Amino acid sequence: MRVTKLIGAFLAVGLLFCLTPFTRSALAAGSSSTELSANYLTVPGGESISRIMVENKDFQTHHYNLQATGLPDGFKAYFTLEGKGMEGLDLTASQKRIVELHLNAPLNAAQDNGLIKVKSSRDDGLESLMPISFTVNHDFSLEITNEIKKLETMNGKSLSFDIAVANTGNKELKDLGLKVDLPYKWTLDKLTPEKLSLKPGEKGAFRLNISIPPSEGSGNNTLKIKSFNGAATSQEISIPVTVTATAGYAWWAIGLVLVVGIVTAMYFRKNVRR
């Protein structure tokens, strides 16, 4: 009798459990999921690099095209493979390659974070998406604020001009310097100051003195300049410089041509006699 009642009690509890509807919280707990993605830190005007592995799990060779989608306004992205730009690659069966995604944030990046997706399209139509989130660190941001449209000078002379920079970030920038790419044989004689420190919102200026060699001919050249320290880098600006050759240079060039002509004539005369 006791066994019969015990069995009946178990059956009643089991039936009650089966007929009881699940609560909303139980459904939510059972259907919840977590999406994981890589997060990369960048600064306004800076670049972050993420390494992505592309793997061919098939038994034959395939071509893969890569594309960064969902880029916010002003952001740019490109892929490199072993230091060279690329959009697609071929992979043999079971081959893996590491591709680098370069994400460039604009100087006026307003948002603090975002999410982009790397799309891989295989030649047989197979596609996959990889989410990559990024965070923009507004603590360190640097800009070159003045725009020099054109400079003019003569060969053998020097140029003097200012490059103005501004700390547009939230923290102090210390030991700022300038990187100056000059044409061949041009020299940066003096940079004042050599280093600069700016508090948030503060502006400063570098004074450059550049010498142009006397042998420089008439023509158009370009200076490329950017400011930087260990935490931030400004945009690179290009300054066109027009050089005019003096009359002295013209006589020097004519004299050089004459010397080359005389040496050539003497060489041929000597060889003809032999």
Description:
There is one protein chain. The longest helix is centred in the last third of the chain and has 27 residues, at 247-273. The protein contains three helices and 18 strands. The strands form four sheets. The chain has a five-stranded mixed β-sheet with strand order 1-9-8-3-6, with no helix packed on it. 19% of the residues lie in helices and 46% in strands. The model is unreliable at 15-32 (pLDDT under 50). By secondary structure, it is an alpha+beta fold. The relative contact order is 0.13. It starts with a helix and ends with a helix.
Would you tell me the overall average pLDDT? 83
Low-confidence stretches: 15-32
Radius of gyration (CA) equals 33 Å
Structural class category: alpha+beta
Number of strands: 18
Q: What strand order characterises the main sheet?
A: 1-9-8-3-6
Distance between the termini: 137 Å
Strand content: over 45%
Count of helical stretches: 3
Taken in chain order, the helices and strands follow as: HHEEEEEEEEEEEEEEEEEEH
Approximately how much helix is present in the residues?
Answer: 10-25%
Gross morphology is flat
Q: Which sheet architecture does the biggest sheet show?
A: 5 strands, mixed
Structure characteristics:
274 residues, five-stranded mixed β-sheet, alpha+beta
Question: What's this entry about, in short?
Answer:
This protein has 274 residues and is α+β, with helices and mostly antiparallel strands. It has helices at 2-19, 24-31, 247-273, and strands spanning 38-42, 47-55, 62-69, 76-81, 84-86, 88-91, 96-104, 113-122, 127-136, 142-144, 151-154, 158-167, 173-181, 187-192, 196-198, 203-211, 219-228, 237-244.
